[in-house]
Specification:
Layout lengths: L11 H18 L4 H12 L10 E6 L5 H16 L3 E5 L3 H13 L1 H7 L9 E4 L6 H8 L4 E5 L35 H7 L3 E5 L7 H7 L6 E5 L18 E5 L1 H6 L5 E6 L8 E6 L2 E8 L2 E7 L4 E2 L2 E6 L3 E4 L4 E3 L6 H24 L5 E5 L5 H4 L4 H18 L7 H6 L12 E4 L9 H11 L2 H5 L7 E4 L12 E6 L9 H5 L23 H7 L1 E6 L6 H11 L7 E3 H12 L3 H13 L3 E7 L2 E6 L3 H7 L4 H8 L6 H4 E4 L8 E2 L5 H11 L5 E3 L4 H16 L6 E10 L10 E11 L5 H12 L3 H9 L3 H10 L1 H20 L3 E3 L12 E2 L7 E4 L16 E4 L2 H9 L6 E6 L5 E3 L2 E3 L3 E6 L5 E9 L9 H20 L5 E9 L4 H10 L1
Parallel strand pairs: 1-6, 1-7, 2-4, 2-5, 3-4, 5-6, 8-20, 8-24, 16-18, 16-19, 17-18, 19-20, 37-38
Antiparallel strand pairs: 9-10, 10-11, 12-13, 13-14, 14-15, 21-23, 22-23, 25-30, 26-29, 27-28, 31-32, 33-36, 34-35, 36-37
Helix pairs in contact: 1-2, 1-3, 10-12, 19-20, 25-27, 25-29, 26-27, 26-29
Length: about 950
């Protein structure tokens, strides 16, 4: 097994959380009163939550932001600074328990290295499951830093082993205080240890049974959760959010790019009848077809359901006047199931190849209704439909891709040696104890072996479950979730989709954070986006998510004071006091915020409806612009989007009034691009191949390590910490057998360079490199060598490349283009008004590749010089790094009558240096192309200008530079 480990790095928000907790404990250790400490902390951080003398310390962190990692490191810090050694982690469900266990294992090496200079470098972990009381005994007996992982089912009944009387021979009197009465049960022993309790998702711990058996722990409770009740419920079972140590609210986690963006697809199989989808407070929620559109209605007694009056509303059904009983129906018709599965597979394939090329494995998660027979039974309907739809789409894709490429080879693992499809596996609560080897292997992979599931070596890419995986289980590479049932509609929508919110990781288990994309949010979201497919029974799914994000984002408000606005600007953006003061004055003076009223001597403001429009007319440094742009929750529509259904895209048609201008523009630009490379003499060629080989020799290729670990159990030490000892029984560095000919071919294919050139470079590599470093890990070597060849080769020969004449090579033009010619996404704009709508070339639609481009189309201010404006159809310019397509085109007319064609390449990066090197080089070749084309057409009465537009560069500035050029 490969020795890869998850790669962790210091995250500022996690460090802030841990530091806040440590500061509270530091004050408590100075013998300050609990409430005084928490009140002081509350005032310092301006948390608007109560302080109560209840010994809980609360941490809210949004789903997918690393709560488990944070509380593991918190345990180390509490041990390092204050000497705490005993911790209990309370876990609400088995999937969460397995996830926590895996996290403790996966972080072990990281923390061992991080705390290398400390005595306690590791946390001894004991997981209590299925009555295995030995784990509890060992936890009690060890004197090292240790944690016991428990679920409520371990102790919430009298019959649980942990609540039964102790075996007398096990414990000696000196184990606890000799003056105390001997403990009567294992649970009482745990209470005597006085551990710190960490509660994961505390909203799940409620009820009399929990209070009865777990009362009496006298240390502090660190409650880590993404969900907290706002108030106590009717039975006062759940303590609401209080004694707050740290909050990472929903808005912040999305805005800081700590989780994936969400896009929701609602399938469009519509049934011509009412359907009961929920019951709450004696009200029945019903979906009804009205004028071809599904609408949601709330009905009380006497309401009409499918033509009959409702006589009674019970907890989970309604009774009609004809005595028929209608239950909430979570099932879907066969037609609807097939449609949703088809759409989910389509979405999966649309993103899988691009992710594969970035070394990221894509996973899709299906939630089915509470009927395991749909996947495991004699007639597993859902499984059969999936296999039929998958095979159909897979066959279509295989026919369109190069049979020699890596992705094609990856798809060849879809079937086992007997020809059975093996891309899909399931996990259900009923699988516990299943003796079928394939089922057990599949559930273990899903529940326990996250690394295997993330690896291309495993064929599993589609996971089926009921709600057993709803909370606790997660995987960073779930990119699509399909809810084949609206079951769980009463549960948090963020929790439902939380299984896929984590940021993705690649084959080296490195997270693809926004840092990896040079701060470019659009590039980050092109990878880190979660598509969710729901049925039309779940109307308002998007709105429900958006509302949850706002409700869970405690610093967002429709109205605000001056102090609140300044506090937000300062704390969330690290601005100094002077900058904050000046920004507030500008917002007020420009009427971006409006005075509303004065309450108790404080002026109350609200956001102007023209806030965004005014903001775009002002100039701010990039950091300030971003801060003001994200100050309010307007970005919700970008963070959580809705695609009502997968409509067929429209053709792209040029407006009648722009056809003449477009014909001139298109015939000017749309020419076959030809580039030439000046002859390279033998000396230069030899120098080039030698330099490439030298740089390749510098790379370090990680070894693949195979290990076998043997564990021994000493029955005579069953209650002691050293009862189990482990040793490495076998360890060997694994080296692959490399097919040099195939390796050279793939390298040539990856770099798009002649195979003769690759052979010349390969022959200059030392035998030692080929036999040792290359064989360590051929896949890694191939990727790194490809990068070196592409960047160095093009860099060295860039000056020798030129574009030559293109006479007689004009392509055919038309006034219609196929859908997708302008961009991946299409939207109708019939009723949308934007500043440059009259100048926009195309009828009724916009197409774009990113929200950054969409923002440019819809929000750029009017400039009188612009005659026409459009996203360019695929204008493919040949470069040594592949074809290049610029973004936008404007025809500009100056006051003197001169005409210009302005070609703009738009990038959302903070600076041009953040653009990836290969992309930057393509832009440089495009500059050469347009310079040559402009020179060729110099006698005509217009000029072609190519400009880069980085981040929020003003269009007016680009136009002014063009006219003055």
């Amino acid at each position: 097994m490969a020795s890869k480990q998850f790669q962790y790095e210091t995250q500022p928000y996690q460090e802030d959380c841990i530091n806040n907790i440590i500061s509270i404990f530091d004050s408590l250790h100075q013998h300050q009163k609990f409430c005084d400490v928490l009140n002081e902390h509350k005032e310092k951080h301006k948390y608007n939550f109560p302080v109560q003398n209840t010994r809980n310390i609360d941490i809210m962190m949004e789903t997918g932001t690393g709560k488990t990692f944070t509380f593991i490191k918190t345990m180390f810090e509490l041990n390092r600074i204050f000497g705490y050694k005993k911790f209990i982690i309370l876990i609400p469900t088995v999937p969460i328990r397995e996830g926590t266990k895996t996290n403790l294992e996966d972080t072990q090496q990281y923390f061992k290295s991080y705390y290398a200079n400390e005595r306690e470098k590791e946390i001894e972990t004991f997981v209590y499951e299925s009555g295995q009381i030995s784990s509890v005994k060992q936890f009690i007996g060890t004197e090292h830093l240790s944690v016991l992982v428990l679920t409520p089912s371990s102790f919430n009944k009298d019959i649980n082993i942990i609540n039964k009387p102790l075996e007398n021979e096990i414990y000696t009197p000196n184990l606890f205080n000799a003056n105390q009465e001997p403990p009567k049960s294992y649970l009482e022993c745990l209470k005597r240890l006085n551990p710190i309790i960490i509660m994961d998702e505390p909203h799940k711990f409620e009820g009399d049974a929990f209070k009865k058996f777990f009362g009496g722990f006298d240390n502090y409770f660190l409650r880590f959760g993404a969900t907290f009740p706002k108030t106590k419920n009717r039975n006062d079972d759940v303590l609401p959010l209080s004694n707050v140590a740290y909050i990472l609210d929903s808005i912040s986690s999305f805005r800081q790019n700590l989780v994936k963006k969400i896009v929701v697809y609602t399938q469009d199989i519509v049934q011509n009848k009412d359907s009961l989808v929920a019951i709450d407070n004696k009200k029945a929620t019903v979906n009804t077809l009205s004028n071809g559109i599904i609408v949601k209605r709330e009905l009380g007694i006497g309401g009409i359901y499918n033509g009959k009056s409702i006589r009674k509303i019970n907890k989970d059904n309604i009774v009609l006047t004809d005595e028929s009983i209608i239950k909430i129906d979570y099932s879907q018709s066969d037609e609807a199931l097939r449609q949703m599965i088809r759409v989910a597979i389509q979405i999966h394939f649309e993103k899988e190849k691009a992710l594969f090329e970035q070394e990221i494995k894509a996973l899709t998660l299906f939630f089915i209704e509470s009927n395991i027979e749909l996947f495991r039974g004699d007639n597993p309907k859902v499984k059969k439909i999936f296999e039929e739809e998958y095979n159909k789409q897979r066959n279509e894709i295989v026919e369109t891709i190069n049979c020699g490429c890596s992705y094609y080879n990856y798809l060849q693992n879809d079937f086992d040696s007997e020809g059975n499809l093996q891309v899909h596996k399931g996990y259900f609560s009923g699988d516990k104890g299943n003796t079928d080897e394939k089922i057990k292997a599949g559930t273990d992979e899903i529940l326990k072996d996250k690394k295997k599931l993330l690896s291309f070596e495993s064929p599993t890419r589609f996971i089926f479950s009921i709600w057993a995986l709803q909370e606790g289980w997660d995987n960073p590479n779930v990119f699509t979730i399909c809810k084949l049932s609206n079951q769980g509609s009463e549960t948090s929508k963020l929790q439902q989709i939380g299984r896929g919110l984590r940021i993705s990781v690649d084959q080296n288990l490195k997270r693809h954070t926004i840092k990896e994309f040079g701060g470019n949010q659009e590039e980050f979201w092109n990878v880190n986006n979660l598509d969710v497919v729901v049925s039309n029974q779940e109307l308002g799914f998007v709105e429900a998510i958006q509302n949850e994000i706002l409700i869970n984002s405690f610093f967002i408000s429709d109205t605000f004071t001056e102090q609140e606005l300044k506090k937000t600007l300062k704390e969330k953006n690290n601005f100094d006091d002077l900058t904050v003061r000046n920004l507030f004055k500008l917002l007020d003076n420009k009427e971006m915020i409006l005075f509303k009223e004065t309450i108790d001597g404080q002026d109350i403001y609200e956001k102007s409806p023209d806030y965004s429009a005014i903001l775009k007319q002002q100039y701010f440094p990039v950091e300030q612009f971003k801060a003001l742009e994200s100050l309010f929750a307007d970005d919700m529509k970008y963070l959580v989007q809705e695609k009502s259904k997968l409509k067929p895209k429209k053709k792209i048609v040029i407006k009648d009034e722009h056809k003449q201008e477009f014909a001139k523009l298109w015939n000017t630009l749309n020419r076959n691009s030809i580039y030439f490379i000046d002859n390279i003499d033998k000396e230069s060629y030899d120098k080039l191949t030698t330099n490439v080989a030298k740089n390749i020799e510098k790379i370090e290729v990680d070894k693949i390590l195979l290990q076998t670990i043997r564990a021994k159990l000493n029955v005579n030490k069953i209650v002691n910490a050293d009862a189990i000892t482990t040793e490495i029984a076998y360890s060997k560095s694994y080296q692959s057998q490399v097919d040099y000919l195939e390796f050279v071919r793939e390298l040539s294919n990856n770099t798009k360079t002649p195979i003769a050139f690759i052979v010349d470079v390969f022959n200059r590599l030392s035998a030692d490199f080929k036999q040792k470093m290359l064989a360590n890990n051929p896949k890694q070597a191939l990727k790194e060598m490809s990068d070196i060849i592409k960047t160095q080769l093009v860099g060295d020969i860039k000056a020798k490349i030129h574009y030559d004449t293109m006479d007689g090579m004009i392509k055919n033009n038309d006034y219609e283009f196929t859908a997708g010619s302008l961009g991946k996404f299409q939207e109708e704009i019939t009723n949308v008004n934007f500043s440059l709508k009259e100048e926009w070339l195309f009828k009724d639609i916009i197409e774009y590749d990113s929200d950054f481009e969409k923002d440019i189309i819809l929000n750029d201010p009017r400039e009188n010089n612009i005659e026409i404006f459009g996203k360019l159809p695929k204008l493919e310019i040949n470069t040594p790094l592949g074809r290049y397509n610029p973004d936008f085109c404007y025809t500009i007319k100056s006051t003197s009558g001169n005409q210009f064609i302005l070609i703009v390449e738009s990038k959302g990066y903070e600076t041009s240096m953040r653009i990836p090197p290969e992309e930057r080089m393509k832009i440089e070749f495009a500059e050469k192309y347009f310079e040559r084309l402009n020179a060729k057409l110099a006698n005509d009465n217009f000029k072609i200008v190519f400009k880069k537009r980085i981040n929020h560069t003003q269009l007016a500035r680009l136009i002014q530079e063009t006219i003055q050029s």
